[in-house]
Amino acid sequence: MLLDEEFPRVLVVSHTPFSRVSGTAMTLSNLFSGWPKDRLGQVHTGNITPSTEVCENFFHFPPRDHYLPIQYYSMRMLGWNGQTPLQQSRPIAAVHAAAESRATVAKVYAQLRASADLSPIRVPPALIDWMRDFRPDVVYSMLGSVRLTRITALAARTCDVPVVPHFTDDWPATLHANGELFGRATRSVQDTIARLIRLAPLGMVISQPMADEYARRYGIPFSAFANCVDETFFAAPRGAANRQGTTELVYVGALHLNRWESLRDIGAALDTLAEAGLPVRLTIHAPEKDLAQYARHFAHLERVRLGPSLASDEVPAALRSADVLVHIESFDQEIRRYTRYSVSTKIPQYLASGRPIFGYGPAEVASMNHIQEANAGVIVGTNDAAALARGLTDLCRDAALRERLARNGTDFARQEHAKDSVAARFAATLRSAARSGSAASEAAPGQLA
């Protein structure tokens, strides 16, 4: 192991490869910004073309290769195309769509997801050879499922190096937590994570509250790493974009996890404010898939505009077009438990953009606390229409308040989220993990625990 190197050789295991196609992939790319390309390798399971901006050494481990033949061909006969994630196959996607409105169907979908996640994994010899040839000093993964966690542990044992898990949502406490597969799914989540933690000298999470909870839960130290931002986002002027006329609110992000419901609440409140003489408008920029699925919920709202989906390089300009940036989370009990420790990918971008933030979601969620810690926005932490209208009115009427909050956010982002400083701390943490020594072998290389 090259202990004196500034950058250890890191094997990244993930579903989505280095790219800008999602918040997770973007965070991954930003954290490894500036890493020598010859010291990065990535195993990815998703059928997504990787970007070579950060890494050039990839091993694609697609579904056809890691499902057993009988599983693979059975699922193909059920309508799966063999390339997209199993959850996106026609039959399962149809069940998923119906599950949003029917509790019984939701239970069926949960069983299907659990069955796919816990099913046996086939490991081709080519993957074992590729990982050994890369000779990593440490394995890193954002995990997210039983299946990916088992593949990550396999990588660490195969290469006899430690692993650094990075948790960005509290999925270990919520995945398959409703008795799927007669309780076997929940036990599998906990057992699989426990095995991985035994290979980890330290871990990473996305917020400090999560670091405190996970250190208590798993008995190893955790460091907080959220998304980081470059100068592209700090280029905006500090003041409000539109001092007169209509106050422009902008939301950039996904609509799943019932976030569309919170945005719909804001849209309804804006209609009420407009009737009272306060000119306001909300523009939503979401992925095309989400717009197609949820657009109907906004059709009756006069003060809501569905803008185009944005490429990553279009986001800074969209943020600068706003007077106020909107962040929302769902008040659904199960979802708020899943997101309680999460800081959304876009929060650092929002803070750096020189615009105040309006946050609407459970007060205890880490993303809302993060905005409050930065003193960069107005938070409405209860699902209450009157409180929502008051918060929006206060922020939209007071230009001086907006400018003060925007300035606070930019200063906080400089201190906490500037890419160069965060990436340097990230590299130092991985270097510390690499120096801890080899993984504790629990099974022979090539076997999955």
TrEMBL record:
GO terms for molecular function: glycosyltransferase activity. Keywords: Glycosyltransferase, Transferase. It comes from the Bacteria. Pfam families: Glyco_trans_1_4. Its EC number is 2.4.-.-. The keyword Glycosyltransferase applies. It is an enzyme of class 2 (transferase). This is Glycosyltransferase. The lineage of its organism: Bacteria, Bacillati, Actinomycetota, Actinomycetes, Micromonosporales.
